[in-house]
Amino acid sequence: MSTITSEELSATTLLRFATAGSVDDGKSTLVGRLLHDSKSILSDQLEAVERASANRGQETPDLALLTDGLRAEREQGITIDVAYRYFATPRRRFILADTPGHVQYTRNMVTGASTAELTVILVDARNGVVEQTRRHAAIAALLRVPHVVLAVNKMDLVEYRETVFAEIAEEFTAYASELGVPEVTAIPISALAGDNVVDPSANMDWYGGPTFLEHLETVPVSHDLAHCHARLPVQYVIRPQTAEHPDYRGYAGQIAAGTFHVGEAVTVLPSGRTSTIAGIDLLGEPVDSAWTTQSVTVLLEDDIDISRGDLIVPTKDAPPTTQDVEATVCHVADQPLTVGHRVLIKHGTRTVKAIVKDIPSRLTLDDLSLHPHPGQLVANDIGRVKIRTSQPLPVDSYADSRRTGSFILIDPADGTTLTAGMVGESFASPEPVKDRSDDDGWDF
Question: pTM to 2 decimals?
Answer without folding.
Answer: 0.78
